[in-house]
Amino acid sequence: MLVLSGRPRWRDMFASLKVPNYRLYASGQIVSTTAQGMQRIAQDWIVLQLSGNVADVGITVALQFAPMLVFGLYGGVIADRYPKRRILQVTQTMMALLAATMAALIFTGSIQVWMIWCIALLGGFATLIDNPARQSFVSEVVGPALLRNALSLNSSTFQLGALIGPAVGGILLSAVGGGWSFAINALACLGTVFALGRLDGSRLLPAPKAPRRKGQLREGLEYAARKDEILFTLIVLTSVALFVYTMPVLLTAFADHVYDVGSSGYGIFNALVALGALSGALLSNLRASVSLRTVIVGAVILGFVQALAGLAPQLGIFAVLLVGAGMSQLLYFIASNSLVQMSTNIAIRGRVMGVFVLIQLGGQSIGGPLMGWIVDNFGPHVGMTVSGTMPLLTALVAGVVLVKRRGQTVSGAARRLVQRHV
């Protein structure tokens, strides 16, 4: 099934920015994601310096996403049931308070690893509500005609922030410590709340609210399981979330244990991934179509490039492959996100995106400690190679199963057609 078609022209690459509400929303996202990238760099590095253990960085990642793993589907129900703009204002305010608390602890010199873990866990509860609402709110800002373009631009703005954030965060870590990264993120979250409040409500296209009734979680799961475009995308996403999206855990190990480049080098590694991801997000705007085949092939390429990075013999080659990994990650992510959203009825989109985000973020709560254990016991190179090989194999198996499944469907339809004419 071809969900999106028609190759966009270069001049249409930024079509969504013609919508005033989206311009305001996107500008807020750039500031927010830049500050989040700075905070993430500071958080991971501070944990590593306090404990000296890569596995503890993995535990931090796990705690950040554990609420999504356990309660993630309820985030989708909330997104379908309540106004999404109001949800985002509440969650961003919560994140601002948590970031400000971390900044205060660091500035006073009282920060300990267990404190970071507690705040990461609380932030995870805010994220499980924030993400499904954020994913499905884009369609309310731009409408269905510009949704695909807006999704790509959304990822572009995210990656622009992720490109700037790690680099600035690494500089701040070396120059003045990590506390300022958290303080800046607190202000950025409040800026997002302000931007959401400035949106013109009369130009929004709100989805119909789902009435409160039993079985809404099951309804979302059953809907996802019935459609190949959603089901197989989620299967492949599970492997990608477990192994690929734990990149920060791997990069801390390469920066500290392999190349000895310190916090600034760790920031540069993250910036290289984000540079590739930004390129991938922009290129995705020129893609003629998005189908299930696009998603599976994208996962194969992503796994292959990331596995190669684990085998890189030199720092220069490793750096180039990080750019390639970032590009393939974003091309894959935008294809999978677009396919699921465009394949889903708007009335149930929040719940289906809740499943998507549950897998995307919840998988990292398992993958973080797992990759940390692999790195501590077998080394960073093995960890990076495994992180690419597993999604590569999963995508290949999914592709084979899908070909056989659709081949059987076509054969069955042909037999029924012949029988009707005999």
TrEMBL record:
Residues 1-406 form the Major facilitator superfamily (MFS) profile domain. InterPro entries: MFS_dom, MFS_trans_sf, TM_effector. The keyword Transport applies. Keywords: Cell membrane, Membrane, Transmembrane, Transmembrane helix, Transport. Its main location: membrane. It holds the Pfam family MFS_3. Gene3D superfamilies: MFS general substrate transporter like domains. The chain crosses the membrane at residues 57-75, 87-107, 150-173, 230-254, 266-283, 290-309, 315-334, 355-375, 381-403. This is MFS transporter. The lineage of its organism: Bacteria, Bacillati, Actinomycetota, Actinomycetes, Micrococcales.
